[in-house]
Amino acid sequence: MNLSPPVILTIAGSDSGGGAGIQADIKAISATGGYACSVITALTAQNTCGVEAVSAVEPGFVRAQLDAVLYDMPVRAVKIGMLANQAIIREVAAVLARSPHLPVILDPVMVATSGDPLLDKHAMTALIEALIPRATVLTPNLPEAARLTGQPVPTSIEQMHALVPALRRLGCPYVMLKGGHLHHVPESVDVWISRDTCQTLSARRVETANTHGTGCSLSAAIASYYAQGMTPIEAGRAAKHYLTDALAHSQQLKVGRGAGPVHHFYAYPVEASQPDVKEASVE
Predict the structure, then answer these.
(1) Does the domain formed by 7-252 have CATH 3.40.1190.20?
(2) pTM exceeds 0.70, yes or no
(3) Tens digit of pLDDT for each residue in 126-138?
(4) Which residues belong to any copy of the Pyridoxamine kinase/Phosphomethylpyrimidine kinase domain (predicted)?
């Protein structure tokens, strides 16, 4: 049987701990029915406890990866995560300009879950000018939205809604403002913003320390569902449902000493018993 799942390209940094970045994107895209290909923008030495070092990929090699994938693969949607610096942002924007109808889900990664900075301080202008207006869906968390708009970090749902006009002015047709940082709110509340409407997306709040890679996984799942034919808001709702369940099952994973990853493949349980493998004799 031949399978032809939709191809989703993720452009992001590598997480050596496997919980975020390219690794989380590939897991989320695969778990939600897509086929993931990738362009790596940076290498990170990190684990569940934090980021030890970051090495950005040479911008020309980022372009070479993009050219190779887009030449051969029938990419249906692009997810963008960590971009590291201004030069890489410009390269990615230049290549994507050749495919103006290709949907782009942009997660403006600036800081890791551990608090470590992941975006060069000189890259903000390039991100705002060159990539955000090109994106289809922008998925900032509250600190990222505050940096993008120059406003204080929201501390309530009302303050999230107050950011809507400034987020619209960034030029992206859809914004999913993630409210996961509002830990005092009993539900996980996001605000879905279009050019003329604003809707609240709510789900149960999962109390867990295993939140590593949540933003990466959400945006990758949106790209996957969008590539499968959902509308942007349908993809946003489906991705939020998927992430909620991945968080709810995260305690099943015993990985690392710090903030562990979500359980991307919770719907595909692994049997506890080992398969009966017969040893082959060697002559």
Answers:
(1) yes
(2) yes
(3) 999 999 999 999 9
(4) 15-263
